[in-house]
Each structure stands twice: as structure tokens, then as C-alpha cells.
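Troubleshooting log. The previous structure file for this entry was overwritten by mistake, so regenerating from the original sequence record. Sequence copied from the archived sheet and checked twice against the printout by T.R.
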Amino acid sequence: MSNADKPGVVTTRWWWVRHAPVRIDGGNIYGQTDIECDTGDRYVFEAVAKVLPRSAVWVASSLQRTHQTAQAIWDTGFPKPVSMAKEAAFAEQHLGQWQGMNRAAFHASRPPGSHWFAGIDEPAPGGESFMDLYNRVRDAILRIGTEHAGKDVIAVGHGGTIKAAIGLALGDQPEKGLAFDIDNCSVTRLDHITSPTVNVWRLPMVNQQPWVADAAHKAMHQPAGPEVATSKLA
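Regenerated output below.
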């Protein structure tokens, strides 16, 4: 959107939504495995729908759990867009041979204080590093943002994808994005502000959970990273 009081300034607002929780993973790492999510809690999606702009460009990753999440939002009566682009660059990190491993056991084996599955430059065997994920997410954000400059963009993605987007907004610092928790169905808004002399990001909200006033719906948090308690191991 153009700022009427500041000629030449264009603000593109990104509304990131993490997909709904996965309940059928068996406690295992799934990464880019194309697994279904649970969209049964209508209250949560009604709350999310109240936050999102009605007239926006929609884009989702290539994995079905993001498409199911978008559909659950539309099913609340939210205006369904004519189309939703499916962007492979917004898929979760490919975790290679780590996919299918017990999540809690894996994180118990990692150094204390880790924010993610591995350091940003450490690739999963047969898969990607977080830096690989970051580079493809960054390139897609810049491409889509140029194409739809001045608009609202609703992007349904994954924890890693959204952490990468935050890292970009924090000044191209992917490691900083990893420090943020991104809950299932949460909304993160990142504004890109440009002009002939300005190219900056603003972070109006990160990991907003508009349903949390009702404790009955707090189960949207699905531990996926180092916060998994080792005491849960069988």
C-alpha cells in the first residue's frame, strides 16, 4: 500500500500463518514429509480469520498441510480467493535422514541451547541446512514482494519458513529468526517498506495467537524443536 502522506513510499504487508498441528506423526520428525494436519478446532480458525485482511494475495507452500489450513480459514466464511499460488520455496526444511526419527530423542542428542535441529550451516544427511531453507525463502519473498508490491500477502507456511522470513526482516540475519517460537496457526506480520531511498522491514507482530483467551484451545502448540522434553521418551 502506498503511504498518501509520504509519496514514493510503498508498504507490502506479509501475513504469515503457520499450518495447523500435525497429530499423526507418532512423535517423529517430519520435515518435508507431506503429512496431513488437524483442522478440527473451528474456534481457532475463526479467531485467525478475524485477524487477516479480506483483500489479499494468498500463497502457500507446496505441502498439503498448508492447503488444509488455508481451507479451514475459508470454511469459517472468510472470503476465498480466486486462486492461491503454491510456492515450493516456502516448504519446510528438508531434513533428509532425520525425517522419521523420534523427535525427543533427536533433540536430546543435540547441544544444549540449540534453537533448531542443527546449526544454520549444517545440512541434514541427504537433505538441507537451515541456510539452504533461508536462501530459497528469502529469494521467493523478494520475488513475490516485488510482484505484489503495496499489497497484503497472506502466506501459509511452516515453522522453519516463518523463522527464515523473520531472519530476513531482522536485517538478513537467519540465525536471529531461529530464536523465535512459531506456534501452529499463529499469525506473524512483517511489513516491507520501500522508497527510492528506503528499504526496511517492520515487525508489527510475531507468533500472535488470537484464540488463547480461551484456555480450552491452548493445544495448538505442538512442540517441534528443542523445547521437546526428554522426559517424554519411552
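The longest strand covers residues 199-208. Archived copy saved in two places this time.
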